[in-house]
């Protein structure tokens, strides 16, 4: 009888311990997913510190923040153009691309400045032929992309994508975002083209020429043209409330987190304590 009681208490203890460990594991897992969503922010902080400690002449190592365009879209160094990190970049639980490729920058810029993303592409060069629209994340409304070949009757427009075909130095082509338009030049922001720190709020300034009624953006390599987001000024920068909403929607561990809340963890600990007390006074 005594042995049976002991066994009962022991198994009760085991169950409680098991449940408790399950719970802490789950809450740890959900915490981890939180941190992975926040890891970009941490990355930003870390990169910022790195930037301050390195002189402006030096090449930026992988993950270092090289500059910020459009007031809040940081660009990070890919280290060199042969490096493939294989690391995913997420912002508010939304996939941005691979750290720190040019397409990742273009998508993150679109997310932060236009609350939208574009679909996945094999390489930046494919954007020219494949992408027909950007999609607002909150309501999935699509806004079409207007293609303007390099050599167009209208000058390049601000906040458009500048797309490059595959060439010797760029096996996947290249994409930059036009962040400012001057009378005879454009300013662009980009990742994975050069690896130095920006001195201003853009990476490069490219001249725009006008010949035989057509506008051309000049660069050392060939350019397909620019793609304009045809949103009639409807798309707005991502605000805090929308960002939080998107993050909530993307958080898959929300349910398990609420089942095994801190409250529950404490209850298990309490039951464990009771069992121990009970066992101690009954049998020892
Ligand atoms: C870039 O910085 C300059 C000077 O601080 C500012 O006047 C300009 O508006 C900024 N441009 C963009 C596109 O943020
Ligand atoms: C490119 O950068 C990566 C990451 O910083 C580094 O491991 C690799 O050695 C670099 N490759 C070259 C050719 O510099
Ligand atoms: C281009 O757009 C940026 C915002 O993304 C703005 O700050 C800048 O003034 C615009 N430039 C022109 C020439 O409209």
Q: Could you explain how this protein is built, in words?
A:
It is a single chain. With 284 residues, this protein is α+β, with helices and mostly antiparallel strands. The chain folds into two domains: 1-46; 54-240, endopeptidase fold (from Nostoc punctiforme) (Alpha-Beta Complex). Helices cover 39% and strands 24% of the residues. The chain contains six helices and 13 strands. A nine-stranded antiparallel sheet has the order 5-6-7-13-8-9-10-11-12. Strands 1-2 form a two-stranded antiparallel sheet. A two-stranded antiparallel ribbon has the order 3-4. Strand 9 (174-182) and strand 10 (185-189) form a beta hairpin. It is elongated, with a radius of gyration of 26 Å. It starts with a helix and ends with a helix. It binds 2-acetamido-2-deoxy-beta-D-glucopyranose (3 copies). One 2-acetamido-2-deoxy-beta-D-glucopyranose is lined by residues 70-71, 179-180, 201.
Provide the descriptors you would attach to this structure in a database record.
284 residues, alpha+beta, endopeptidase fold (from Nostoc punctiforme), elongated
From N to C, what is the helix and strand string? HEEEEHEHEEEEEEEEHHH
How much is the radius of gyration in Å?
26 Å
User: Into which percentage range does the β-strand content fall?
Assistant: 15-25%
- How far the N terminus sits from the C terminus, by CA atoms, comes to 15 Å
* CATH architectural type of the largest domain: Alpha-Beta Complex
Structural class: alpha+beta
Strand order of the largest sheet: 5-6-7-13-8-9-10-11-12
Treating each run of at least 4 consecutive H or I residues as one helix, how many helices?
6
Give the CATH superfamily of the largest domain: endopeptidase domain like (from Nostoc punctiforme)
CATH topology of the largest domain: endopeptidase fold (from Nostoc punctiforme)
Hetero groups in this structure are: 2-acetamido-2-deoxy-beta-D-glucopyranose
* Total domain modules: 2
Which blocks of ≥5 consecutive residues have pLDDT under 50? 23-56
As a percent range, the share of helical residues equals 25-40%
Name the overall outline: elongated
Mean pLDDT: 82
- Mind describing the biggest β-sheet? 9 strands, antiparallel
Q: How many DSSP E strands?
A: 13
